[in-house]
Amino acid sequence: MSDPFDTPKRGLDMLRDPHLNKGTAFTREEREKFGLMGLLPDIVSTPEQQEARIEGHLTSLPTDLDRYVYFSDLQERNESLFYRILMKDPVRWMPVVYTPTVGLACQTFGRIYRRPKGLYISVRHRGRIADVLRNWPEADPRFICVTDGERILGLGDLGAQGMGIPIGKLALYTAVAGVPPQMTLPIVLDVGTNNEELLVDPFYIGIRERRLSGADYDSFVDEFVTAVRTVYPKCFIQWEDFANHNAAPLLERYRNVVPSFNDDIQGTAATGVAGILAALRFKKERLEDQRVLFFGAGSAGIGIADLLCTVMVRHGLSVDEARSRIRLVDSKGLVQTQRTDLTPSKEQYAFDDVPADTLFESVRSVRPTILIGTSTIPKSFTKDVIEEMARISERPIIFPYSNPTSKSECSAEEAYEWTGGRAIFASGSPFPPHTMNGRTFTPGQGNNVYIFPAMGLAVLAANPSSVPDEAFVVAANALAELVTDENFLSGLIYPPMASIRNSAMHVATAVATWFHEAGLARSERPADIAAAVRAMSWTPHY
Ligand code: NAD
Predict the structure, then answer these.
(1) Hey, is 245 helix, strand or coil?
(2) What angle do CA 29, 31, 32 make, to 5 degrees?
(3) Which atom of ligand 1 is nearest to the CA of 407?
(4) For residue 394, what pLDDT is reported?
(5) Closest by alpha carbon to 206, among 193, 220, 219?
(6) Is 404 a residue whose pLDDT tops 90?
(7) Is the minimum distance from the CB of 296 to ligand 1 under 6 angstroms?
(8) Within 10 Å of residue 48's Cβ, how many Cβ atoms?
(9) Which residues make beta-bridge pairs with 333?
């Protein structure tokens, strides 16, 4: 990578460039060389002193939203310092920079808005999207994360204020896997919003119109993809937080047109499958012998269901046999053959079970060994549901995946208490450790951050022509194999978050290797893929 300080920039221009600014850590020689004398106070700080100053500030702030705003300013001021702090303690700071705090940040985005950190491509730009893309100041972006803001976490339609998600997500690509920050480009497609509150909110930042839909919407997205291919032909696209009715169709329409994936579908799927594979390894049980019930049959639920089927087919089952191990519950109850309102993606999981309207009745009918919540309905895993799970299985697997914390189907404490400590638990948003009967359980977080940054680094390393579902099976297996006996005994079915960077290197290496073996890689195969992946990974520099 070229030296960022090999630049004509000097003086204030350098201090105002977040890629270059070191603040008071510029040495006296650098101050001479770059015309910074007098523009900084006399002190020359060490990076550690700068970190301590920022950490002190962050700690003194009253709420996580205040810390989010402070982090956001820091990212615009001194990128290396921002990433050093984030990487130093990801367990503490990722929940501030991304979920769950980013949910509140998006809801209040119009009030906390500072400087643009990405591109707002609105319906007003129709016909000129390529020109808008050319306004981005970086020469060689490789990773676009794009949303239209219609399904932000479990919070619904936040319109253009969904921009917080691509910004946060791409920051994690860098913090976790070292995808170079200059290569990342957050984008919101501002196609309006149907959120009545935002439409009348004087601080709303987006276009004050109802959402574009149908053929108009499709042609707008089509212009966007075509423009990306024209302006940034090496760019990879990650679709993010699109509503269910657009998420899967967009993925299918473009997956062979441009290297792309949908993290809500495939990243979630790989994370969920990795957790299940790790749990079953310790239970010494086979996936094919499980009954899996999904509460919530949207992008995330069906994404995990489909990838579980892919794994079972690899284990020798037919597609129909694999599907028969899975059941879905949506807002109308258990998905069954007699229903006439099913989409094709739900229909493939429709069976003739004992009819059930509620989740409890569905659990009674299906007798699942694994229960996964992707419904956005808080507290829906009630005491009777969880107690029933504990009657069905000695070690029930219970994953309330809905985000943010306020939407979680149950808390870790509830799952442990109501199963007498027998639940194998992982949630979407983090929960604190829980102690019962002298034993402390550390709840795992089935956070997609285990997968998508590593997938990004693998894509950077191998430059594949497409990113098929198989790549996510490889990622899930690589992640699951990192979970140790010690992790499992403490309650974890994912590697500890504190070692997330090492996990990402391992997963990225496995996936990059698979891209080469599958003949999809467009870059030359290095002799040592692990070393090449590590060498590509950016670290904050001074
Ligand atoms: P989605 O809108 O596509 O799906 C939500 C589903 O919930 C829909 O099928 C809907 O019918 C169903 N639902 C709504 N009300 C219901 C009810 N009363 N009973 C049963 N089902 C009901 O959203 P999604 O992308 O699938 O995301 C769902 C949730 O999962 C979100 O909270 C999201 O943040 C979370 N999620 C978590 C992770 C993770 O932790 N790794 C990853 C992705 C998504």
Answers:
(1) helix
(2) 65
(3) 32
(4) 97
(5) 193
(6) no
(7) yes
(8) 10
(9) 330
Residue of 151, 241, 375 with the most ligand 1 atoms within 8 Å of its CB, for mutation: 375
Identify the residue whose C-alpha is closest to ligand 1 atom 12: 296
Give the pTM: 0.93
Preceding peptide of 404 cis, ω within 30°: yes
pLDDT of res. 467: 96
448: left (phi over 0), alpha (psi -120 to 50) or beta: alpha
Report the run of H or E that residue 199 belongs to, with start and end. Answer: helix 196-199
Which ligand 1 atom minimizes the distance to the CA of 375? 7
Query: Which residue CA neighbors atom 39 of ligand 1 most closely?
Result: 428
DSSP string covering 9-71, please? --HHHHHT-TTT--GGG--HHHHHHTT-TTTS-S----HHHHHHHHHHHHHHSSSHHHHHHHH
41 vs 91: CA distance, rounded Å: 33
Ligand 1 close to Cβ of residue 122 (< 6 A): no
Q: Assign residue 153 a region: left if phi > 0, alpha if psi is -120 to 50, beta otherwise?
A: left
Q: What is the CB neighbour count within 10 angstroms for residue 440?
A: 10
C-beta contacts of 68-71 below 8 A and 24+ residues apart: 68/96, 68/97, 68/101, 68/102, 68/104, 68/105, 68/112, 69/105, 69/112, 69/114, 71/96, 71/97
Q: How far is the CA of 192 from the centre of ligand 1 (A)?
A: 22
Distance CA 498, CA 384 (A): 35
- pLDDT tens-digit map of 26-48: 999 999 999 999 999 999 999 99
Domains of the chain: 11-92 (1.20.1370.30), 101-258 (3.40.50.10380), 266-446 (3.40.50.720), 450-536 (no CATH)
Q: What mean pLDDT is predicted for residues 211-221?
A: 98
- For 31, other C-beta atoms within 10 Å of its C-beta total 16
From ligand 1's centre to the CA of 81, what distance in Å? 35
